[in-house]
Sequence to fold (137 residues):
Amino acid sequence: MKHTTVHDCRIIDIRKFTDNRGYLSVIEGGMDIPFEIKRIYYLYMVPEAARGAHAHKQLQQLLIATSGSVDITLDDGREKKTFHLDRPWKGLLVVPGLWRDLDNFSGGTVLMCLASEHYEAEDYIRNYNDFLNYKKS
Ligand code: TYD
Fold:
């Protein structure tokens, strides 16, 4: 999980059902995404200041701006790639071992995260130099 790169991440088109009652989108763990969903959390009422600034050793995630928009910059220690999430049917699949910065939240953004694991503080790398050393080791 250490040797992942930003190219292992991608935007997936979440299935949607549309009719004159509006849109309905669905994600089934292990079917639409390559992991079972153990946890869901979401960020909202985020002020100007950026969030993120950490990496995970094992956690896989699907990030969705269910409302509003946000920029997610992923960094594998060599390359960075920024993804703009601005539609409820666009999900960013984030593999483990990548530093992420979240910024440019538009007003009213809700960023939902489907996660492959329960919350574990030990899975986080919160110092950028520690992250670079982890990727090199
Ligand atoms: P934090 O990891 O700092 O947020 P960010 O993703 O922007 O870096 O999380 C904020 C607080 O929420 C922190 O005290 C840990 C807690 N938290 C949980 O208890 N469970 C969770 O699933 C998450 C994501 C956070």
Notes: The chain has a mean pLDDT of 96. The first strand starts at residue 10 and ends at 13. The pocket of thymidine-5'-diphosphate is lined by residues 39, 41, 51-52, 54, 119 (CB under 6 Å). DSSP finds one helix and twelve strands in the chain.
